[in-house]
Design goal:
Length: 381
C-alpha cells in the first residue's frame, strides 16, 4: 500500500497489467489488478476499485472463457472481483447492483470450496439484507456465516460478524442483545488483533448509549474508537464516517449544534465521494437538525433533511427513512405545510408497517414495533 500511495507507481502497475493482458499472460495481469483494487478499496477510492474489478472480470470473459476459467489464478481472481463488487455496492446502498454480484460470488465460492471468500459474500449479503430492513433474513444469513467461520477457524471474519449481528439487533431495538454481540466482537478482536472490528463495535455501542441517553458512556466508546482509527490503516474510511456522525449526534445532545454541524460536514466529505448513501443521508439529517438547533430558519434545515430522505430512499434504509420522514413532518408543520406534513407522517407509518409485515418471527416483529425508536417515531407521526 505504501508503494501505491504514489500515483505514478500505481499508474505504472496498471499499465503493466494491460501489457500482460495484451501478451496473453492473464494470470499476471489479474494479480496486478487485484493489488490495485485492494489498495483502492482500503483507501476509499470506490470508483477505481469498481473499475479494477470490471477489468478483472473482463479477463475471464475474453475469447474462450471456459478455457480461462480452468486457470486457478483467474478463477480465484473472478471470485474475488465478484465478491468485492457485491461488497462495495452493498456498502453504497446500491442493492440492485450488489445482489447479482453477491449471488454469483456465493455460487462460485461454493463451487470452489473457498470458505474465506464465500464468508465475505455472506457478510455482504447480511449487510445488504439488514440495510433494507429484512432483519430476520439478515440475522439468519449472518449467524450462518458466523457458524461457518467458527468451523473454519477464520480469524478474519470471527471478530467482524458479531458486531454486524449486534448492529441488526440495535436496528430492531434490542439494545441488550446488541451490546452482548458487540462486546463479543471486542473480545475476539483483542484475540485476533483486528482493530477495525473493535472500532466498529465501539461505534455501535456508542450509538446505542446515545439512544439510552447515556452521553458519558457514548463519549467513552467514541473516544476509544477514534484512538483505534489513529492506529489503523485498513478501511478506516468505512468506520470514520460512522464515528463522525456519532460524534455529531453526541454534540447535538450536549447543546453544541455548531460542533455537530462541523462533524456532519466531515462525515459528508468521506461519505459523498465513496458513494455511501446511508451515511451521507445520516450526515445530512444531522446537519439539518444542527442548523435548526443553532437557530437557522426551518426552511434551511428542511433542505438538508430532504437530502437525507432522498438518500434514504435511494439506499432503501428504513430507519433513516423513518427518522428523516418524521423530521420532515415536524418541519413542514412548523412552516404551516399541513398537507405535506400529513403525507410524510403517512409515509413513515406505511414504511414501518411494511418492514414489520416482512418479519415472520413474532418475537422479532414485536421487538421492532415496541422499540423506543419506532414508538417515538410513530408517536410523532
Amino acid at each position: 500500500p505504501a508503494l501505491l500511495d504514489n500515483q505514478a507507481r500505481a499508474g505504472l502497475l496498471e499499465r503493466l497489467s494491460r501489457a500482460y493482458a495484451d501478451l496473453g499472460q492473464l494470470a499476471a495481469a489479474a494479480r496486478h489488478l487485484e493489488t490495485l483494487r485492494n489498495v483502492a478499496m482500503a483507501q476509499g477510492r470506490t470508483g477505481d476499485a469498481e473499475r479494477h474489478c470490471a477489468a478483472t472480470l473482463a479477463l475471464v470473459e475474453e475469447p474462450a472463457p471456459e478455457a480461462r476459467r480452468e486457470e486457478p489464478v483467474l478463477v480465484a481472481a473472478q471470485l474475488n472481483a465478484l465478491g468485492w463488487l457485491g461488497m462495495v455496492h452493498a456498502w453504497q446502498g446500491d442493492h440492485e447492483r450488489a445482489m447479482p454480484a453477491i449471488e454469483a460470488s456465493l455460487r462460485l465460492g461454493q463451487e470452489l470450496h473457498n470458505p474465506f471468500l464465500t464468508g465475505r459474500s455472506r457478510f455482504a449479503l447480511g449487510m445488504s439484507l439488514g440495510n433494507r430492513g429484512r432483519y430476520e433474513d439478515a440475522l439468519a444469513t449472518l449467524r450462518d456465516a458466523l457458524r461457518l467461520a467458527e468451523e473454519a477457524g477464520d480469524r478474519y471474519w470471527l471478530p467482524r460478524l458479531p458486531n454486524t449481528i449486534g448492529w441488526v439487533y440495535s436496528e430492531l431495538g434490542d439494545l441488550s442483545q446488541a451490546e452482548e454481540w458487540n462486546r463479543r466482537s471486542i473480545a475476539v478482536a483483542a484475540e485476533t488483533g483486528w482493530l477495525e472490528a473493535e472500532a466498529n463495535a465501539r461505534i455501535n455501542l456508542g450509538a446505542d448509549a446515545l439512544r439510552r441517553g447515556d452521553r458519558s458512556r457514548a463519549r467513552d466508546h467514541f473516544e476509544r474508537a477514534a484512538a483505534l482509527i489513529e492506529r489503523d490503516t485498513w478501511f478506516t474510511w468505512r468506520y470514520r464516517m460512522r464515528l463522525l456522525v456519532g460524534l455529531g449526534e453526541l454534540a447535538l445532545l450536549e447543546g453544541a449544534p455548531e460542533r455537530a454541524l462541523a462533524f456532519a460536514k466531515q462525515a459528508l466529505a468521506v461519505a459523498t465521494p465513496t458513494g455511501s448513501r446511508k451515511h451521507a443521508g445520516r450526515a445530512w439529517l444531522l446537519s439539518g437538525r444542527a442548523l435548526l438547533a443553532a437557530g437557522a430558519p426551518p426552511k434551511e434545515a428542511l433542505a438538508h433533511v430532504e437530502r437525507a430522505r432522498s438518500l434514504a430512499q435511494a439506499a432503501g434504509h428504513p430507519p433513516l427513512l423513518w427518522a428523516s420522514g418524521a423530521e420532515l413532518a415536524r418541519l413542514h408543520a412548523r412552516l404551516g405545510h399541513e398537507a405535506e406534513a400529513a403525507a410524510r407522517r403517512r409515509d413513515v407509518v406505511a414504511s414501518v408497517e411494511t418492514v414489520a409485515g416482512g418479519i415472520a418471527d413474532a418475537s422479532l416483529r414485536s421487538l421492532l414495533l415496541h422499540s423506543p425508536t419506532v414508538q417515538a417515531i410513530l408517536a410523532g407521526a
